[in-house]
Amino acid sequence: MSNQTFLVGTGVDSIYACRLTSNGQFELLNETKCGKGSTWLLLRDDLLYVVNEHSDKIETFSIDNRNQGKLTLKNTIASIGDTPCALDIDPSGQWLLVSNYGDKGTSNFVSFPLNNSKYPEEKGVQITTIEGNGPHPSRQQHSYCHHVLFHQNHLYVVDLGSDTLSVYHFDGKNGKVNLVHNRTKTEAGAGPRHILFHPTKPFAFVCNELNSTTNVYRCDSSSGQLEHLQTIQTRREKDQNDSTKENYTAELQFTPDNKYLLVSNRGDENLVIFNVNENAENEILTIKEHLDCHGSFTRYFTFDPTGTFLLVANQKSNNLICFSYNRENGTYTFVSQLDNIQSPQHIVFLNDTSA
Fold first, then answer.
1. β-strands 4-10, 213-219 pairing
2. Coil, strand or helix: which one is 96?
3. Nearest to 299 by CA among 161, 157, 193, 158
4. pTM above 0.70, yes or no
5. Rounded Cα gap, residues 20 and 7, in angstroms
6. Which of 295, 291, 327 has the alpha carbon at shortest distance from 309?
7. CB distance 234 to 207 below 8 Å
8. Are 296 and 317 in contact (CB under 8 A)?
9. For 132-176, how does the pLDDT look when each residue is reduced to its tens digit (9 = 90+)?
10. Is residue 156 exposed (0-12), middle (13-18) or buried (19+ Cβ within 10 Å)?
11. Contacts of 59 (CB under 8 A, 6+ apart)
């Protein structure tokens, strides 16, 4: 395996370019200045789309050198909402979707048309809002749109504030959306954050930020409708019983062999590792173990494109952690650590051919 280059989005005004060596060691390559809060990175061909979570903008960079992670800013546009936090591109490749969380202002999701240079532009933009709220006194006063994701023929929108999952038909000609059926409600106060689909089975998984649970749904491939199958806690019992601890889930991903689902616990400072029981009727997930994150507030984690290493971004301890992953027995071994990466919150590999 050769060396791999990856980018780290942050909560500050920098994007770091780093190298992961063939034996799992980190090297810091360079730092690109950007708008504040590059907390979500989306790679498409030779362009990188970047949210500026703390300045309400979307930046587009060209990738000039993948080996060194060299970037050049090409375009900046307002996110037309407050606190942009997630991005996706529609199947036609003509629209950039942005979810605006609305931390101190407007929450919505916005469809930006991409011009011939594949930069988003305001002309022809479509803006969609979600009505509703939840019982949490400070986190659910209104809609907080947290995640947009295209899957098969539908657009899925996860709203933390209203405890809803919405499925839309997306019109690639004009960027307009139509709600396919009634929104799916999670448990009141759950605060759904991110959704993930199984690569081969008709299952969807949602991590709930506010009550530290993960939901499992059966997904109808034709209608996109979600049928709830299971809700399971992400925390250890001793952590749940510790009244001094607060915990918020953040990210969820499958292992490269799809045997396990991982969810990060910010506060307990670990990853819960679920067994994925594909053939079970209802108990699709069971807890295998919890993996210590070697840091604080794991906002994001991902496997490298070869499936050999697990990288963990610890937001508050300002470090990256590398574990090796053993596919034969599903175990992890600490390999290396990179410190002084300020507020790391997202990771994108530049050699990932699936992007």
1. unpaired
2. strand
3. 193
4. yes
5. 11
6. 327
7. yes
8. yes
9. 999 999 999 999 999 999 999 999 999 999 999 999 999 999 999
10. buried
11. 34, 35, 38, 49, 50, 52, 73, 75, 76
